[in-house]
Design a protein that fits this description.
- By secondary structure, this protein is an alpha/beta fold.
- It folds into 3 domains: 220 residues, Aldehyde Dehydrogenase, Chain A, domain 1 (3-Layer(aba) Sandwich); 192 residues, 3-Layer(aba) Sandwich (Aldehyde Dehydrogenase, Chain A, domain 2); 43 residues.
- The chain contains 18 helices and 18 strands.
- The strands form 4 sheets. It has a 7-stranded mixed beta sheet with strand order 10-13-14-9-8-15-16, with helices on both faces. The chain has a 6-stranded mixed beta sheet with strand order 5-4-3-6-7-17, with helices on both faces. It has a 3-stranded antiparallel beta sheet with strand order 1-2-18.
- It is globular, with a radius of gyration of 27 Å.
- The N and C termini lie far apart (68 Å).
- The model has no long low-confidence stretch (mean pLDDT 95).
- The structure holds nicotinamide-adenine-dinucleotide.
- The site of nicotinamide-adenine-dinucleotide has 30 residues, from α7 and α8.
- Belongs to the aldehyde dehydrogenase family.
- GO terms for molecular function: aldehyde dehydrogenase (NAD+) activity.
- Keywords: Oxidoreductase.
- InterPro entries: Ald_DH/histidinol_DH, Ald_DH_C, Ald_DH_N, Aldehyde_DH_dom, Aldehyde_DH_NAD(P).
Length: 491
């Protein structure tokens, strides 16, 4: 990267461009969203290649989770922009005569987006859509761990977007640290809780608001479903949300499964069958499952499995190949709960099944751990569904499916507690990157003389009536027909 001095000059230029009002109008915002759509259309093949190169992602998965998903979001933002940007009238109490009030969304200014490597295009473009729709100037810092995708974004975006208002700065932690030291009007960070803490601490120096999209261990609770059809559907959805989501390297991937002990062997058998159907007899030969992003993460996962007590719990899979960064879809039965494997986010194709006496015990299990980004519950039991809603807390809660909540533009996407703060997607993205300004308008004709000093009992009584909307009380007090019950403590 350039020097820090160059960076500051660049950012000042962007701020000035923003202050000049260039990014505020609807036409500019629309042109940026249309530019993004053109990029996604025209550079799709390059994106497929970059995702294949960085993560071994199959084009279908790449389209489902990144390119197609971003297209859907950009189209949704384009279609909704007029409504999102519109001024909302605000109601006022009757006492506010001849006064009107409005809520006007305005852009925040110059914002920073830092993204992660596992969905390197999608998690860069999704927040970018919101930031541009809201009329901001934006610096995007993609993850260095998906280098082909990062350089594709850096090279391609300027050709489709207003390069005076949108810049991609590439680099790793050192660059990112320099970036977060700068003054921003908002930072949206996607990544680990460890780095999220550092980002938030740096942002605090400038009182910069942050949205932290973090991770954690997302549980799937699998109840003893009554029909074999339902069981098969549930198992497919769980496996899809693990091995079919960047080989488990996804923040909302299923991290572990909770089942009743009596139901564990049938669940395991079904999982084996469906892994075979999804990835073939020799998954290593299949192009379907993504690869581990790099050697560091491969060795991290390998080390987790090397704990003898964890290793002993492997009931399916377990093979790995360092050269091709391949780890077979692996299932473990009751690995030790105190192991790193069951304490840290797994972020890989290793799926532990934890057995419980009763499925209701899953509520305590979830509540005794940090609040997850997502909880998935496969059950037809209404009372369990109600208890899950009322008694657990997580970024999202999905019944009888997993991961699909990510696609809903009408739902906020974000964590709670350790899994993050703030949210985005659809209108929530627009709001995340907007300030909702309260605007009041009054004329000069009418005023409440009692709002100004000097103070006396009479004025106190008027306020007592006014604040409880007792207009008769106000009238009677003005006419001197109602006396203050409680006088002022000092004259
Ligand atoms: P990470 O925290 O290591 O890196 C994220 C980003 O921060 C990268 O762009 C990196 O360059 C940058 N960075 C690294 N060190 C930094 C520092 N000291 N100061 C400032 N920036 C720094 O995370 P990762 O490995 O890229 O992603 C994996 C984590 O992200 C997992 O925990 C996963 O659950 C989480 N995640 C969350 C979401 C979500 O939407 N909630 C999505 C994807 C991943």
């Amino acid at each position: 990267m350039e020097t820090l001095g160059d960076l500051e000059v660049h950012l000042e230029g962007m701020r000035e461009y923003y202050r000049g009002g260039n990014t505020r109008g609807a036409p500019w915002r629309k042109s940026q969203l249309q530019g993004l759509l053109r990029l996604l259309e025209e550079r799709e093949a390059e994106m497929f290649m970059a995702l294949e190169h960085d993560l071994g992602k199959h084009p279908v998965e790449a389209y489902r989770d990144e390119i197609g998903c971003a297209k859907k979001s950009a189209n949704y933002a384009l279609g909704s922009l007029k409504g999102w940007m519109s001024t909302q009238k605000a109601k006022l109490p009757l006492g506010a005569v001849l006064t009107t009030a409005e809520i006007i969304p305005e852009p925040l200014g110059l914002v920073l987006i830092i993204s992660s490597w596992n969905v390197p295009i999608g998690l860069s473009l999704e927040p970018l859509i919101g930031a541009l729709a809201a009329g901001n100037a934006v610096v995007l810092k993609p993850s260095e761990l998906a280098p082909r995708c990062s350089s594709l974004l850096a090279n391609a975006l300027p050709a489709y977007l207003d390069s005076k208002a949108v810049k991609v700065i590439e680099g790793g932690p050192a660059v990112s640290e320099q970036l977060v030291q700068q003054k921003w009007d908002k930072i949206l960070f996607t990544g680990s809780a460890r780095v999220g803490r550092m980002v938030m601490a740096a942002a605090a120096n400038h009182l910069t608001p942050v949205t932290l999209e973090l991770g954690g261990k997302c549980p799937a609770v699998l109840d003893s479903l009554s029909s074999s059809w339902d069981r098969e559907v549930a198992i497919q959805r769980i496996l899809g949300a693990k091995f079919g989501a960047c080989a488990g390297q996804a923040c909302i991937a299923v991290d572990y499964v909770l089942v009743e002990k009596r139901f564990s062997s049938i669940s395991l058998e079904l999982m084996k069958v469906w892994i075979g159907k999804m990835f073939g007899e020799n998954p290593r030969e299949s192009r379907t499952m993504a690869r581990i992003v790099n050697k560091h993460h491969f060795l991290r996962l390998k080390t987790l499995l090397e704990d003898p007590n964890v290793k002993a719990s492997i009931v399916h899979g377990g093979s790995m190949d360092e050269n091709s960064l391949f780890i077979e879809p692996t299932i473990l039965l009751d690995p030790p709960l105190e192991s790193d494997f069951m304490q840290d986010e797994i972020f890989g194709p290793l799926l532990p099944i934890i057995t419980l006496k009763k499925i209701e015990d899953s509520i305590n299990f979830i509540n005794s751990r940090p609040k997850p980004l997502a909880v998935y519950v496969f059950t037809q039991n209404d009372s369990l569904q109600k208890r899950m809603v009322a008694e657990t807390s997580s970024g999202s809660l999905t019944f009888n499916d997993a991961v699909i909540q990510y696609l809903a533009d009408t739902l906020p996407f974000g964590g709670v507690g350790e899994s993050g703060m703030g949210n985005y997607h659809g209108k929530f993205s627009f709001d995340t990157f907007s300030h909702h300004k309260a605007v009041m308008r009054r004329g000069f004709l009418v005023d409440f003389w009692f709002r100004f000093p000097p103070w006396n009992d009479h004025k106190l009584q008027l306020f007592r009536s006014l604040y409880v909307f007792d207009y008769l009380g106000v009238l009677l007090t003005v006419l001197g027909l109602k006396k203050s019950k409680q006088g002022l403590s000092r004259a």
